[in-house]
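User: quick one
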Amino acid sequence: DAGVTQSPTHLIKTRGQQVTLRCSPKSGHDTVSWYQQALGQGPQFIFQYYEEEERQRGNFPDRFSGHQFPNYSSELNVNALLLGDSALYLCASSSGQGGTDTQYFGPGTRLTVL
Amino acid sequence: DAKTTQPTSMDCAEGRAANLPCNHSTISGNEYVYWYRQIHSQGPQYIIHGLKNNETNEMASLIITEDRKSSTLILPHATLRDTAVYYCIVRRVASSNTGKLIFGQGTTLQVKP
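Assistant: Done. Structure below.
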């Protein structure tokens, strides 16, 4: 049973560019949450997708957007990249309406913005 | 969601029990205590969670005080591979607004040979 998978593992972009990160949830899960983890900090909640809709959002600007597909996989898009967007981006999947069950994390995507 | 307070760092000798405390004095009746750990540069790993009863699984035990204002995660026989940052998180469940996990700074556990 595959756990949560994310791609790519690492990514290097320059300021102003756009990036798309991908997440496949654990088998049987229908909810995907995204987190940003800056160096030395705990993860911060970006948003959560359930039934292909954004259900809850953290304190992140509109440059951060997402999408969930019918197969429950998800994408995180970040536009107009800033140096401060350099971080580990984590995807977590869960089940239950609104992701009420335990969240399981993927390995993350390390984004470096130059 | 209630906030949690954890020590910044702890050491433990290999083979001994590691006891990681967490204070959550403002916890509500419908909030669970969750523990995750994060080994360097990897995604957080779920360990255990509980509401008011003590819980045990293959990884750890969770002891919650009777007033629910604090808890302790116990790794019974710590190994070098248990060196990680441990996060204690309080979270409401069974509600439509329970999507996010609020991470603090966690406790860095260093297991020493």
